[in-house]
Amino acid sequence: MKKKILPNLSIEQNILIATLSIVMIVLLITSSVYYAVFTYRTDSLVESQSREINKQIVLNYESYINSVIETAHYIQYASLNLDVKDSYEKLQDVFLYNSEIKKDVVSLFLFDEEGNKLLGNDLNSVVIYHIAENEWFQNGVTEKAIFHFSAPHSQSVSLNRNEVIISVSRFVEFTYKGIKKSGVILIELNFRTLTDLAEKTNLGEGGHILILNDDDSLIYHSGKGYKEGFPESLQIAVEHYLGGFRTKIGNKEMFININTLIHTRWRIVTVNNINEIALARQQILLILLFIIIISFFVTTTVSLVISSRISRPMNELKKTMFKVENRDFNTKVEVTGQKEVVRLAKSFNSMVEEIRKLMKEVVSEQREKRKTELKALQNQINPHFLYNTLDSIVWLAENERSDDVVTTVIALARFFRISISKGETFIPVKDEISHIRNYLTIQKIRYVDKFEYKFIVEPEIYEYKVMKLILQPIVENAIYHGIGDETEKITIKAYKKDDFLIFEVENSGYGITEERIEEIYKVLKGTHSKSSVGMRNVYLRLKLFYGEEADIKISSILDEMTCITLFIPAESHYIKEP
C-alpha cells in the first residue's frame, strides 16, 4: 500500500506542499543557471575593468606626451613669428620660461640644419661638436612630419646634465634675418616623470607596466621585485603586437593589454593581476550557493509546519484578491488565525490602500504633466513672434524710419511684459486684448496702409482669465495670409455666449476654399504632414487644458472674408472683484 503524504493534512494542504517542493526544485535549477550566467558576466567585468585600467594608463601617458608636443608647437610658433636674429632676447626668454616652469624639461634648444645652436636655456654649456651626427638630429631632419622620442639615455646635449633623459626632436621652421629657414627643436625630458606615472598605478600583486620601442627593445618596466613573471610578459608582448587577452604568468591569472602611444613609436603593455578578483568571485558564488541551500531547507520546513494552519484564511484572502483584481479597491480582508497570516492580511490591506493612494497620485501627476506640456507649448510662441518682430525692426531701420523703430520697440516691450505676466499661464481677457493691440501696433508700422483693425469686446468678460498668447498666432495668420493689393480689414471680437467665451478674428481678403479648411483641420489634429507653430499650438493648448469642449472653428467666403473662432469654457477661470 502507498503511504499517504502527511495524512493529518487535507488534500489542499498536500497540494500546497507539493507545489512548494516544485518551486524549490525550480529555484535550484534557476540558481544553477544563474551561477553559469554570473560566472560569464564576472569574467566580462574583469576584462572590462582591466581594459579600462589600461585605457586610463594610456591616457595619462598620452596626456603627458601631448603637453610636451604643445610646448614644442608653442616654441615653433614663436620661432617662426619672431626673428631669431632681431628678437633674440624675446625668444631666449620663451625658451628659458618653458624650461623653468616645466619640472620634467631638462633642457630646450633650437638648432639650424648644420647643427649650430641658436636658442636654448643652457647655451653656454652645450656641446658644440657632432650635433648633426646625433640620431635624434638626423631623424628630425629626414622625417619632418613627426615627433621623435628616443629611448632613455644619459647623453644630454648639455654638459651640466648627467641624468637619464629622453630626447624629443622635430623638424621646425624659423625666421632668421627675415628669411624662413629649417632646423630641429630638441626637448630633453627627465625620464623620472614617465616612471612616476607608472608607479602611481596599482595593477595588483605582480602587475607591472612595460614600454617597448618599435624594434621591441625594452624602454621601461615597472616590475621591481617581481622578476619571476617579467621575462615571460616581455616575451608575450613581443609575440602579440596589439590587443588584450587573458593569460597565466606563473600561478597567477593576468590580463595583458597592449596599445600604442600617439605621436611616438612606443607600445605600452599593462599586465594586470586579476587573480584576486577571480578568487573573490568564487567566494561570493560559494556563499550564494550556501545561502540558497539553507533557504531551501528552512523554507521547506516552515512551509510544512504552517501550511495546514493557513489554508482557510488564505482562501479568504484569495477571494478578496479576486475582488481587487476586478478593480474593487474599496474591499478589505478580515481573517483570524496564525499571526503571520493576519499580518499578511494587514499587509494586503495596506497594499490596497497604497494602490488607492498611488492611483490618486498618478491622476495628480498626469494633471501636472498636462500643465507642464501646456507651458512648453506656450513657450514656443514667444521665439516665433520675437523673430518676426526683430525682422520688422531691422526692416524699419534699413528704411531709416527711426520714429517707427522707437514705437515698435516700446510696443515690443509692452508685448513681452504681458507675455511674461510674472510667470502666470493665465491672464485676464483685458490683458490678452492689450497684448494684441501692442502686436497690431508693431505690425501696422511695418505694413503701412496694408490693413486696418478694430476691436469689439464686451466689457463684462474683461475679468475672465484665459491662457495667454491664444489670439496672437491667429491675428498673425490673418495679417500674413490676408494682405493683398487692397487694404485689409481685421476685426477682433470677444464676447460671452451661453457657457463659452468666444473670440473671433475676421479678415477681409481672398478667403479660402472648403478643401483648404479641411486641410487646416487635419493640420490642427496632427493628421497632416504639414506643421504649424501658430494655430496648431493654440489648438493643442486649448485641448490640453480645457478638454474637448474647447475648439477652433474656421469659416470663409471666397473673395470676401475668413473668420477664425475660438470657443473656451467660461466657468474655468474668473477673477472676482476684491
Outline:
This protein has 13 helices and 17 strands. The chain has 578 residues and is an alpha+beta fold. The relative contact order is 0.06.
Can you describe what's shown?
It is built from 13 helices and 17 strands. With 578 residues, the chain is of the alpha+beta class. A hairpin with a 2-residue loop joins strand 8 (243-249) and strand 9. Helix 1 packs antiparallel against helix 2 and helix 6 (275-325) crosses helix 7 (339-378). It is flat. Mean pLDDT is 76; it is low at 1-6 and 225-229.
Biggest β-sheet, characterized?
A: 5 strands, antiparallel
- Second rung of CATH, namely the architecture of the domain at 383-569: 2-Layer Sandwich
List low-confidence stretches. Answer: 1-6, 225-229
Name given to the CATH homologous superfamily of the domain at 383-569 = Histidine kinase-like ATPase, C-terminal domain
Shape: flat
Strand-pairing-aware structural class: alpha+beta
> Termini distance?
93 Å
User: What is the residue-averaged pLDDT?
Assistant: 76
Order of helices and strands: HHEEHEEEHEEHEEEHHHHEHEEHEEHHEE
Please provide the count of β strands: 17
Q: Rg to the nearest angstrom?
A: 42 Å
* CATH class value of the domain at 383-569: Alpha Beta
Question: What is the CATH topology descriptor of the domain at 383-569?
Answer: Heat Shock Protein 90
The count of helical stretches stands at 13
Helix content: 40-55%
| Cross-sheet strand order for the largest sheet | 2-1-5-4-3
